[in-house]
Amino acid sequence: MRRHQYQRKGFVIAIISACLPAAVIGMILYVLGTHQIEAEAQKTHRNQVAYATERINENLNHLESIMAGWSFNLNLSSSYSELDLYKDFKSTRSIYQALSWIKSSDPLIQEVTLYLDKQQVLIKESTGIRPIGSEADKQLYRDLASYQRDVYWTNQLKPSNQTTPYALIVRIPGGLVETEAALFIEINAKQLNALIAELDSEGTGSTVLMKQGGGILSLGKGDIEHPSPLDVTLMKSINPQITEEASTIESWEGEAYSVSYGLMKRIDDKWIIAAATPLEQMTKAVQTLSRVMIWTGGFGVLLALFLSWYSYRQMYQPVQRLLQQLLPGRTVDTADEFAYIADEWKHLSRESQILQEKVEQQLPSLRENFLLQLLQGHLSYLSEEELSDRMGQYDWEVNDRVFAVLAVQLYGIYRSEGKFSQGDEQLVSFAAMNITQEITRSKSMEVSIVNFHDLTLGLLVRQPIEMTPESRQAALFHFAEELSHTLNSLLKLEVTVSVGTSTTELRRLPVLFDNARNALHHRKLGEEQQILDVDDLMPVGHDVIHYPFEEESLLLKALRSGNEPELMQLLDEFLHILKQRSTIELGVRQGLLQLCGNMLNTIMISGYNLLELNEGLDMWEQLADVRESEAILSWMKQHMIEPYIQRLHSTQNMQLKQLVENVLLTIHTNYAKDISLEGCADLHGTYSKKLSLGFKQVTGETFIDYLTQYRLNQAKKLLVETDEKINDIATKVGYQPPYFNRLFKKYEGITPGQYREKSEKLLR
Questions:
Q1: Per-residue 3-state assignment (H helix, E strand, C coil) for 152-170
Q2: Is the pLDDT of residue 694 over 50?
Q3: Per CATH, the architecture of 654-763 is what?
Q4: What residues does the HTH araC/xylS-type domain cover (predicted)?
């Protein structure tokens, strides 16, 4: 009953929320909003006129400034009064070019005419040179050219069908110099009308551009010669004394118009833009909408009732599904499902926080294990990009960094004046690591430490790439000195720190760390503190070496891992590169024999005897008579690599099978605990990728699929054979109850409660 009451309240709230706002908004818009809408429409119209006025004013200012510039730039080698148009061909051509440039400099220009006072001619780019005929015309042009202003507007020129009544006059030259010529700029009526007509896009109103003292320049879409009655009314309404932008509402033939005025300053004058737009047109859409809202209010209420009911059902269904996920097979005896969901969410958040804390507790160990595998070369199968991504996952900054390795070795534990004794190696190593961590934190250095638990520490130092090599090396040695001094003074042991070579490639770190550890053997006996520079201990010659060391390193890694396809490909590439670098047969032969020896050494280090693999065949005796490089390579593949790979795979398969069997035993005995692939890999002394691939190869399933299925099988036994609660069973098999319910339904298709009921029916 309480649950139904909550639903009814929610339904009523939904109805009120859907129906009431529509009716109230409609009434407010129609009754109270009309006046406000008119005011806003008038304001919008005034802003439109102001914007159009500003834009037109900018166009005209641009035209005036361009023409004022031409009044000084349109100069010839001689004065206009001395110009002979028919003999001075060069100057005449320059005039035509200048007139063409002026005409194309602004879209408002329809025609440009040059008037020469001395010659009494008019020059146009389109019609050429035309003498002025009548004395009245000569006097008119002379008066226009000698006007007191250098640039001004006039309507004394007779316009054509394509030009406006007013033209722009520019005296040449300007200033105080006596005028010898003038430019008459006729304005393109179509372009100017288009600018004005934008204020009346619907064509239901009127627009006008006129001088403040009278004189029409444009009526937009209307004809100046035949203005409409509305145009005449609008022009009469313009106050010649207007000094600023204004807006009013005027009536004409029983219809209200929003009339807005804009003012622009021209040369020695002011022009006015006026626009009249029907107010009904501006507010028609809103008024119609408000009426429609009232007319359809009744139908809207009925529709809102239905939609409220339907919407509430649709909105409540996700809540029901969420409750079913949280409590499968059970009902909630509460009046507020959302409060219950909030409680469950808090519970899940607490569990998530606990898991996050566990992860954070394990993160240092995971980071140290990853770094250990990296420095020991166990991650050679990863590319540079993959290594960078993995280190980024462990919160290591690797971008724009240079990497350097340091090896720290402690000696004299048996001569430590009773402070330490035999068997305390792990304790001393742990103390040394803690001291090193404190030093790095105090110096704000990016240092990661690996504890080998045998009085040896490995340090990976990350330095900014913008540092110079000298400053990076100096920082490493200062750090090594402080570290050796602190460890010696606190632990009373001999300390040797080996400073390795820097690199920007993560894949080179195993080799650099091996060099750093090997350099520790060069320490001097009896010294309390020593700093060894790997670069000083490794002599560097200056001979040109053609041997491909990097390719050999990749090849030996493939040999150790037993990757036969990659190994065969690398051998062919090795021979190809060796032939490219060596120009004589002896160099290629020596390179292949060097590779053969290194491969033999790698096989022996792996614990295999080549004499047993190839039944006592003398390798060097066989190769002594082989001259062709391809034959040497073929012999190595047949008598070295193939026997080794077969024995290695046989041994690896046995070891892998034993490893997986041990992991299966761990799963079967500890499935109720927190088990992960990484944890099992650490427990059995391997790395996660090897265990993942091996587990899939031996069992045919992934680690997580096998663990999940085994846990669910144990849960199904408990559901059938016991009466324990489902939440308790979930905990017993290693899951949180909500996650267990979702997982069970995903794999079995039904909830745990339904599975128990189904099993009980079958048993009956």
A1: EEECCCCCCCCEEEEEEEE
A2: yes
A3: Orthogonal Bundle (1.10)
A4: 661-758
